[in-house]
Recover the amino acids of this structure.
């Protein structure tokens, strides 16, 4: 039997659709790409708590309040699974969080838009979580084992999130004129940023090709975006609302919806930190971390005292 | 009799709702992700309890009253929550101490309600007491950890006690609508104080003496904080009267 080098074994696993596990040998760039992507995903869950958390104290009924709180709490849970998955690649959660706070690590730009009305809770659930699910369903088959398994758990909860978002909008769409207007306005503001969530066009995307080869990604940005447009263009008919795109039209030949041009200047501007809420979101995360410093220190100090006491008891 | 029961049930509903509303302010801003999740669990439990109490109150009131009409359309002077629960979060120490002082009381209260003569309240109490057992444990652990943690955390806990202790006696001072209830306030206070003393001793914290006690919340005379809490809570229902959400 010929002796294979680790790189060949790795490549063979990828080709055989076997998962790569934390202790397996992997190319440095594979490790780095996964670490970047998973930690970015974890940060997105945690920063993503902020725009929705913004409406918890003002939710319009006790039932809506309970659902919204549960949803935002789920996101914290997703953040935890993802930080754990990322830690298997050799970086601690503390280090990842420090990178978020210095701006070195990114999170999904969608959360740099403000949640201005209650209808935004619906639009975020329906459009933002809807776009996230399309990406995440693909990632349940990603080649890195811990990431794929985290995604399976997360996808189950995300589909509940999308349904609750749609339901909020459905109620508004059947409500008073003011509620209908609120619903349409939220769709108008969240539609284009949601399309941008899939990232740049395939021709412009720097990480895509290698990620496809390693089966970290299995569909291209443009394929996923098209899937999303096709889904939403149908679902919006139930709401009796309109997507803010005059070029949106069914293309019978392609069997897909055509849609208008995305404003990539806006996308890059938000990525660079100039979105309407970049500063507020990062400030909020930093502030939570700084205000928690004395609490974490006290917890450690107390645990140490406890250990000392137990030791002296045993002795 | 019925009016007293309605008012008493509303008092229980308002108290759990306002504490849930306060705790909910932490969601997304906790000191560490695991604790963000933990306090949000408590928030959801309290919100669930308040909904049960409001639904029961609504059924007693009739006339199309609902959990939402009671939570969203009553005014400052109609709310009957304890003053303790409307106090600001300030920091993690004050928040966990507030939860501790309340949950210790709430547990023994639910224990009595469970055995009380109102079957609805008994049923809600039975369901709530399991959750409250966890709230007592979680908040006691934090009071001990922070009290006996670092110098700074100890000082912060002393400050929180200084801030909140004055609102504790209201829990044991019956108002008119409580006179007919079967709650034994003396027993409640004895048990509560006993447990608070134990936890404070372990936490190296001291119980204030001869502090003047503030009351009024249960009769609708609140601190200035409540108006702001209700402004947030009731904003949408007040802005769009009659709309469905």
């Amino acid at each position: 039997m010929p002796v294979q080098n680790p790189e060949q074994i790795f490549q063979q696993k990828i080709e055989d659709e076997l998962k790569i596990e934390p202790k397996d040998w992997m190319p440095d760039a594979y490790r780095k790409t996964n670490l970047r992507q998973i930690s970015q995903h974890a940060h997105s869950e945690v920063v993503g708590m902020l725009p929705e958390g913004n409406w918890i104290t003002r939710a319009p009924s006790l039932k809506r309040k309970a659902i919204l709180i549960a949803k935002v709490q789920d996101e914290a849970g997703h953040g935890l699974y993802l930080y754990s998955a990322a830690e298997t690649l050799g970086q601690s959660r503390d280090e990842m969080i420090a990178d978020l706070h210095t701006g070195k690590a990114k999170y999904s730009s969608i959360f740099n838009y403000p949640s201005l009305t209650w209808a935004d809770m619906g639009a975020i659930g329906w459009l933002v979580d809807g776009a996230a699910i399309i990406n995440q369903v693909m990632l349940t088959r990603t080649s890195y084992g811990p990431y794929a398994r985290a995604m399976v758990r997360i996808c189950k909860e995300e589909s509940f999130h999308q349904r609750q978002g749609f339901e909020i909008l459905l109620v508004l769409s059947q409500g008073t004129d003011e509620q209908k207007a609120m619903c349409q306005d939220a769709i108008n503001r969240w539609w284009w940023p949601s399309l941008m969530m899939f990232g740049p066009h395939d021709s412009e995307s720097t990480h895509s090709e290698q990620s496809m080869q390693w089966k970290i990604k299995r569909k291209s940005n443009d394929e996923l975006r098209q899937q999303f447009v096709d889904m939403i263009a149908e679902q919006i008919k139930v709401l009796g609302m309109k997507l803010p795109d005059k070029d949106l039209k069914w293309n019978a030949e392609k069997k897909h919806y055509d849609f208008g041009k995305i404003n990539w200047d806006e996308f890059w501007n938000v990525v660079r930190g100039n979105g309407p809420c970049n500063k507020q979101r990062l400030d909020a995360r930093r502030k939570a971390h700084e205000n928690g410093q004395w609490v974490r220190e006290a917890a450690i100090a107390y645990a140490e005292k406890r250990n000392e006491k137990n030791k002296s008891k045993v002795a | 009799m019925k009016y007293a029961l309605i008012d008493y049930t509303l008092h229980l509903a308002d108290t759990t709702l306002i504490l849930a509303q306060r705790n909910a302010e932490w969601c997304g801003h906790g000191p560490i992700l695991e604790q963000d999740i933990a306090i949000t669990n408590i928030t959801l439990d309290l919100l669930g309890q308040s909904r049960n109490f409001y639904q029961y109150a609504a059924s007693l009131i009739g006339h199309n009253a609902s959990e939402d009409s009671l939570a969203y359309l009553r005014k400052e002077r109609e709310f009957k929550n304890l003053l303790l629960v409307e106090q600001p979060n300030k920091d993690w120490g004050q928040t966990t101490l507030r939860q501790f002082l309340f949950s210790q009381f709430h547990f023994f209260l639910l224990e009595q309600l469970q055995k009380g003569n109102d079957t609805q309240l008994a049923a809600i109490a039975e369901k709530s007491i399991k959750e409250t057992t966890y709230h007592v444990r979680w908040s006691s652990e934090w009071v001990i950890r922070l009290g006996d943690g670092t110098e700074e955390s100890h000082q912060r806990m002393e400050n929180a006690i200084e801030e909140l202790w004055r609102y504790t006696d209201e829990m044991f001072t019956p108002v008119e609508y409580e006179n007919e209830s079967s709650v034994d306030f003396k027993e409640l206070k004895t048990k509560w104080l006993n447990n608070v003393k134990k936890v404070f001793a372990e936490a190296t914290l001291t119980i204030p003496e001869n502090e003047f006690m503030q009351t009024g919340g249960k009769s609708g005379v609140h601190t200035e904080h409540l108006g702001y809490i209700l402004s947030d809570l009731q904003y949408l229902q007040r802005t769009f009267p009659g709309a469905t959400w």
Residues 145-173 of chain A form the longest helix (29 residues). The CA atoms of residues 138 and 219 of chain A lie 7 Å apart.
